[in-house]
Design a protein that fits this description.
Shape of chain A: elongated
Largest interface: A-B, 118 and 90 residues
Distance between the termini of chain A: 78 Å
Number of domains of chain A: 3
Order of helices and strands of chain B: HHHH
Shape of chain B: flat
Number of helices of chain A: 17
Largest sheet of chain B: none
Order of helices and strands of chain A: HHHHHHHHHHHEHHEHEHEHEEH
Number of strands of chain B: 0
Largest sheet of chain A: 6 strands, parallel
Structural class of chain A: alpha/beta
Number of helices of chain B: 4
Strand content of chain A: 5-15%
Oligomer: heterodimer
Number of strands of chain A: 6
Helix content of chain A: 55-70%
Amino acid sequence: MSRTTLIDLLYLVAATTFLIALKGLGSPKRARIGNIVAAIGMAIAIGATFFYQDAEGNSLEHINLMILGMVIGTIVAVPAARFVQMTAMPQLVAIFNGVGGGAAALVAITEFMHIKNEQPPTYVVLEVLLGVLIGTVSFSGSAIAYAKLQELMTGRPITYPGQQLINAIFGVASLAIIVALLVSPSTTFLWVLLALSFILGIAFVLPIGGADVPVLISLLNSFTGLAVAASGFTIGSNVLIVAGTLVGASGILLTRMMSKAMGRSLANVLFSAFGSNVTASGDGAREDGRTVRSGTPDDIGVLLAYASKVIIIPGYGLAVAQAQHVVRELVDELEKKGVEVFYAIHPVAGRMPGHMNVLLAEANVPYEQLREMDEANSEMSTADVALVVGANDTVNPAAKADPSSPIYGMPIINADQAESVVFLKRSMRPGFAGIENELLFDPKTVLLFGDAKDTLTKLVAAVTNS
Amino acid sequence: MGNALLQYATVLILSIFVGVEIVAKVPSILHTPLMSGSNAIHGVILVGSMIVLGTAHNSVEEILGFVAVILATLNVVGGFVVTDRMLEMFKAKPKPQPKKEEAQ
């Protein structure tokens, strides 16, 4: 067997492990092992590449530089991935996705420089240009997504007049440059395309609100996959085509599934600048004079301690305040008093689907106490108290009742059906979607303002003493 | 249009269908790890980065290839480690956890 055949065989092994991993990630039991299998497959592919030979039988040069680059990448990536707070996971995924897109674009650019003097066939140039365009959009788009989630910039959609038109012009200009490059492959045009793609990525992400950014990351993830597949065509590597296309295709489906979980279409997520119209007034009183009722920790502690069933609805506010451990203490105290307690987990609670499950699992909350939305809703009418911790949009009845509401149609947890409702909130500021929550003004609702961790700590004390 | 292109196109088409089929029934709770896991898999661009660096003819190509290797390594290593860390949380969940933490 020749060296090249052996290397191709090892690439086939790697591609197979990627399939096994994606399949495994579909079930909680096999997910972790699947991920490890893919990591091993990746190591095999990388190891094999050191022995790669080009068509003329030349081995790769600059091996030292390669190893140096890998060492630098690993030294940066491992601590970042290991020690970043669980709440910051989504932005971390965004960053790792963005650098992947960047790498795909750089591979395409370098390949372009290789081939531009050799009169390459049009389809090869096209593959390269698609790699540059998609990879760069993914890179700059992920950077903005990161900035939004990390709150380096506002999480609200950024809109300006004629936005869609301007974006369309950038898109058309990119296509025009691609056509120009196909006719005459010049490096100058390539730099223009690079700049245009970079701006396009930013312009595409700016109008998307923070609540929708996870869906966007999934889409950009899919883009990077496609850019990798395009590079695979250029270099002539099956493993790149298989892996890139798998991620590209599955990513687009996953993106659609995620927007469906929010009760919205993908087009609506991407182009509606969702959440830009903040309807909430931001203070307790509204124009119509209605006010909210706020309580003291002691009142609410008594309410909870003498309830027979309490349902806790956690949201991102809980995660931000790092209050997942305190909320577990509260549940322990309530159980000691004989109160039946469980958590109702909205599918998109937190910042990403499944995010809240991960955060609570980290705080050693037992699995049996977590109920999915449908199950929780069927028990809601028998609950004495629905305790909403740092959540807002996921319990907003407008999603069911008000067809004019931007979140109309989103599945929610029916906290309004409980006997009484307690909100632990930092302020009257509206939730991520930027819309008013009628439930806050309901006569059976009590609010306790403050950082979720502080208020929960006070509640634990109040429950213990009552 | 060469045979190679046709072969790559075959691989592309088949991969699209496999990719869609494979994630068609993932529960929403696993959407995040799935996204993160597939994020790690497209880090295979490291293979491409190594090839362009290894066949670089001049210093511009060398620099671009070198940066590509660093970025791709970040993608691959970070992607797998983050996914593993997420999935670690799922592992402990099916069994009840009898240990009681020290109170306060």
